[in-house]
Amino acid sequence: xxxxxxxxxxxSCFDDISRMVHETQDxxxxxxxxxxxxxxxxxxxxxxxxFEGEVYFKLKEAEEQAAKSNxxxxxxxxxxxxxxxxxx
Length: 88
Description:
Layout: E1 3-6, H1 9-12, H2 14-24, E2 28-32, E3 35-40, H3 43-67, H4 75-87
Parallel strand pairs: 1-2
Antiparallel strand pairs: 2-3
């Protein structure tokens, strides 16, 4: 469930918000005048979110490339190429 707090809690309850985002790895949504204003999350959660986004982007890009090509590779061919690349 989303954790929603008023932005004023950043001043009065900073330690509580910091502890919450680090312990749960969930973001805290901050409101200003009753409307969503910003999201606070731990650096670790942000880096994980950023990494996942990059992985999904690369997978989508690979799927698009595969759809445009008739060329297929076996698992053995892929691993062989990876091993050759790593040894260089």
